[in-house]
Amino acid sequence: MPPRAFRVAYDGRPYSGFQRQPDVPTVEDALLDALRALGVLDGDDVPPGYAAAGRTDAAVSALAQTVAFEAPDWLTPAAFNAELPGTVRAWASADAPDDFHATHDATRRTYRYHLYGPTLDDARVRAALDRLAGEGDFHNLTTDDEGTVRTLETDCARDGDFLVLTVAADGFARHMVRRIVGLVRAVGSGESSLERVERVLAPEPLDGPAGVPTAPATPLVLADVTYPRLAFDPDPAAVESARDVFGERRVEALTAARVTDDLCNGIE
């Protein structure tokens, strides 16, 4: 069977990350369980040629996570969704060349972070992001010892009480995006100076209390993964299904927010 790549969106909040782990629910478990239920996969192994674009952390969501493997022609995104939980939806697919690898062939990964910051100084946040942009060694923003030199693109847009931070690169070290958020939030609040960004990018390590905190995972979304050799074709039925199920989850979240607003505003 030829390899096929699938775009997968998921609400990461119920999951302990993307990659399979013992005794906890993961997105990868949901995908492989669906393939077993569909008869594409036997046992506990993975399909031939299987790989994913990346490993998102616990509670991190995705719009364009990408998994690829040798798949039968009938396995459309809509067919995939028939056995997936509502928190995970395949919505597009692409024929892939025989040598395709979903991890190694990605040339760019883009993340968005929805930072609640009604009192943050937008200009200071943008200035911090600008100083982080370009090629740098981000070893002080990760626990990884390798893969810390990256060429970063950054952007920021105000949306009411939120700042939507966008960062893109060919790849990211562990926790790098969330520590970027922690750094720019500290600068935007006035807790740290802009000069702290230069110190973070310096060769000398930051240890202990001097290190950069990791921002919470829930507001982070893997927004896009770029593959120059692939042309993804959205599946109309799968797109409609994804919009329906995530729309329902949005209503649930908005309703929960109204309840907590009532409690917060009613206490005198």
Automatic annotation (TrEMBL):
Binding site for substrate: 111
UniProt keyword tRNA processing present: yes
Keywords carried by this UniProt record: Isomerase, tRNA processing
Signal peptide: none
InterPro entries the UniProt entry points to: PsdUridine_synth_cat_dom_sf, PsdUridine_synth_TruA, PsdUridine_synth_TruA_a/b_dom, PsdUridine_synth_TruA_C, TruA/RsuA/RluB/E/F_N
Catalytic EC class: isomerase
Cited function: Formation of pseudouridine at positions 38, 39 and 40 in the anticodon stem and loop of transfer RNAs.
HAMAP family: TruA
UniProt-recorded name of the protein: tRNA pseudouridine synthase A
